[in-house]
Design a protein that fits this description.
Blueprint: H1 4-17, E1 21-27, E2 37-42, H2 46-63, E3 69-71, E4 78-82, E5 86-91, H3 93-99, H4 101-104, E6 109-111
Parallel strand pairs: 2-5
Antiparallel strand pairs: 1-2, 1-6, 3-4, 4-5
Helix pairs in contact: 1-2
C-alpha cells in the first residue's frame, strides 16, 4: 500500500509531466489537521490548468487514490483537488499571486520532491 508521501510524489510527477510551473510542496502535517501536504502549482492558461487537473486525477486514480472533491474546474483560475491527506491547488498566475497560499501557509515546512521518497528507517 502506498503512503501519503508516495502519493504526493506521484501528484508532483503528474504536474511536471504536463509542464506545471512553480511547483511548491508544503508539509502542513504538524500545523493542521486538514491534510498532510499542500501541493501548489500554476499553469499558463485555462486549457493547461484543466489538463493538469485531469492528469493528476487520472494518475492518482490509477495509483489507487481516488479524488474526494474538486472545485473550480470550470473557471480554471484556481482548481482545488482534495485527496484527503493531500490537497492540490492549481492556479493561473494572477490568482496565485493574489491568494498567495505560500505566504498564508508559511508555518508549514516547504519540502523538495526528493523528500517524498520513503525512508526505509521510518
Amino acid at each position: 500500500m502506498k503512503t501519503v508521501k508516495e502519493f504526493a510524489r506521484i501528484a508532483v510527477n503528474a504536474l511536471e509531466d504536463k509542464k506545471a510551473e512553480d511547483i511548491h510542496i508544503i508539509d502542513i502535517s504538524e500545523i493542521s489537521t486538514i491534510a498532510d501536504y499542500f501541493i501548489i502549482a500554476n499553469g499558463t492558461n485555462k486549457s493547461q490548468i484543466q489538463t493538469l487537473a485531469d492528469h493528476i486525477e487520472e494518475t492518482l486514480g490509477k495509483a489507487g487514490l481516488p479524488l474526494k472533491q474538486i472545485e473550480g474546474y470550470q473557471t480554471a483560475n484556481w482548481v482545488l483537488m482534495d485527496y484527503r491527506d493531500i490537497i492540490v491547488h492549481i492556479f493561473d498566475k494572477e490568482n496565485r499571486l493574489f491568494y498567495d497560499l505560500d505566504r498564508i501557509w508559511r508555518d508549514g515546512k516547504v519540502v523538495g520532491k526528493e523528500s517524498l521518497t520513503e525512508d526505509p528507517t521510518e
